[in-house]
Design goal:
The complex is a heterodimer of chains A (433) and B (60). Chain A has 17 helices and no strands. Chain A is mainly α and 433 residues long. Chain A has two domains: 171 residues, no CATH class; 208 residues, no CATH class. Chain B is mostly helical and 60 residues long. Classes of the chains: A mainly alpha (433), B mainly alpha (60). The interface between A and B is large, with 54 and 27 residues.
């Protein structure tokens, strides 16, 4: 399925602009279409995924006895990690990182309620994440860009799914510490960690929920495969026929093209990115959820019509749902949640969304994106505190709320898909300053 | 509003999210319609594949 990248049409550019393009093709502020090793990173939209992993694993899982089912998940999960690390992300060093995640899994078996080992496990997971994801960002903040930064890691790479491994390791450590999760069997836990349909980009699972479904998967083959295949096909069609086509517009969100563009084109490019990121990520989630369904396992939903929501709190309750719930349970509530004085609650909201922003990427633009949403959510809380508790918005009120939410969220994407100077330049151009 | 909720339920059924169709759409739950829908989706995939980029969230 993967192919080359054809030349993109120049929608909204002045006629001469193409000659001055830099060749820089930002997709979401992380450095373009290529990984650190110069390869296109595709997993769910490859034949290898379906022929080598999904179909054999799902059939193997179905025909294996209950005792062996978790081991089927573990075996195929480990093979998936090694195969896609070697061929797409990180190379041999990336594949070697499986040892790290197996070590973390083995360490997790030591957790007991109230034990310091749970806290050590959380710290360990964060250290690995910081080393691989934030090393150059953090050392760069202190020591400056590469020529002046002796600690710069030129060969930096991101192990496959490290952010999502970290979420699940931290969830298990915290819940074991609180005593709200059982230890479970080793095989079940390894299957939970290495369940490949959700390994790379979620949805983020919870161990008690997954273990229950793993031990009692749905036995309705026909219905599961019918729904799973439908979900996978819908995801692939959304990715190829909508998200990838929108690249023709979003490819222009870079300094050179913004400088050359007609002003009317700029909001359209940003809107295209807003649609693209929704279609792209929900397509990914569709394929992950559909793939899990082939095993007879229902994993959490990630999206529920977020762009139809009439306020920012509702938007976040329906956008990347598994992440929002994770951040609520493991960042917002430990900070004190909403059971504190209003100012402290606003600070908790801002901190949680700042963490969300920095998790999305090691860059100041992601921090600004997170804080933008934090400000919107805090503003919504203030607005709610002024309204009577039973007040229901009128139809016009709901329409205004929807428009405000939609515009605010889409303006925020500017900080998500462009680095900070480019995003600020974008807003200067759009406002004519 | 009821119409919107009805459309949403039909869309979710077609997406493979749910097994139940809303009242008045039961006739859509036919094997040949499902086959037609799969064919249309597969056609879209074949028509548009080959220009693909990575999924945005894949290396977050």
């Amino acid at each position: 399925m993967p192919g080359g990248l054809p030349p993109q049409p120049k929608y909204g550019l002045r006629p001469s602009a193409g000659e001055h393009r830099t060749g820089y093709t930002p997709q979401h502020g992380r450095g373009g279409l290529l990984t650190h090793h110069g390869r296109l990173t595709m997993i769910f939209n490859t034949f290898s995924y379906f022929l080598l992993f999904l179909v054999p694993a799902a059939i193997g899982f179905r025909i294996a006895g209950a005792r062996w089912q978790p081991w089927v998940c573990f075996f195929f999960g480990a093979a998936f990690f090694v195969f896609f690390s070697l061929t797409q992300i990180g190379g041999a060093a990336g594949a070697f990182c499986l040892i790290i995640f197996l070590w973390e899994s083995a360490f997790s078996r030591l957790y007991k309620p109230g034990s310091w080992l749970c806290l050590a496990g959380i710290a360990q997971a964060l250290v690995f994440l910081i080393i691989f994801k934030y090393w150059n960002f953090l050392t760069g903040l202190v020591l400056g860009p590469p020529p002046q930064n002796p600690w710069y890691w030129a060969g930096a790479f991101l192990p496959l799914g490290i952010s999502f491994f970290t979420f699940e390791f931290i969830h298990y450590a915290v819940d074991r510490y609180r005593g709200t999760a059982e230890r479970g069997k080793l095989a079940d836990y390894l299957a939970f960690i290495l369940f490949f349909p959700t390994m790379v980009a979620g949805p983020i699972k919870r161990y008690p929920d997954f273990a229950a479904k793993l031990t009692q998967p749905s036995l309705e083959w026909a219905q599961d495969w019918e729904l799973g295949i439908t979900r996978i096909l819908v995801g692939l069609a959304k990715k190829f026929a909508i998200a990838d086509l929108l690249s023709a517009f979003t490819v222009h969100l870079n300094m050179a093209d913004i400088g050359q563009a007609e002003r009317w084109a700029l909001p359209l490019w940003l809107l295209a990115y807003g649609v693209k990121i929704y279609v792209d990520f929900s397509a990914y989630s569709d394929i992950a959820i559909g793939s899990a369904r082939l095993f007879g396992i229902k994993v959490p939903e990630n999206f529920s019509w977020p762009y139809t929501r009439t306020n920012i709190a509702e938007f976040w309750a329906h956008w990347h749902i598994s992440l929002t719930q994770w951040l609520t349970d493991y960042v917002f509530i430990p900070l004190g949640g909403s059971r504190r004085a209003p100012r402290r609650v606003y600070l908790n909201v801002l901190t949680t969304l700042a963490v969300s922003g920095l998790w999305h990427g090691a860059g100041l633009n992601f921090l600004v994106w997170g804080l933008w949403h934090g400000v919107l959510l805090a503003g919504h809380r203030i607005w709610k505190s002024w309204c009577p508790p039973s007040a229901q918005p009128s139809l016009w009120g709901a329409a205004a709320g929807w428009a405000l939410t939609f515009v605010s969220v889409n303006l925020g994407w500017a900080f998500f898909c462009m680095d900070l100077p480019t995003a600020l330049f974008f807003f200067r151009r759009i406002s004519g300053v | 509003m009821k119409t919107l909720i009805w459309i949403k339920a039909v869309c979710e059924f077609m997406q493979g999210c749910g097994t139940a169709l809303p009242v008045g759409a039961g006739h859509l739950d036919r094997a040949w319609l499902r086959g037609l829908w799969w064919g249309a989706l597969l056609g879209a995939v074949i028509l548009f594949c080959g220009q693909s980029s990575r999924f945005i969230y894949i290396d977050f």
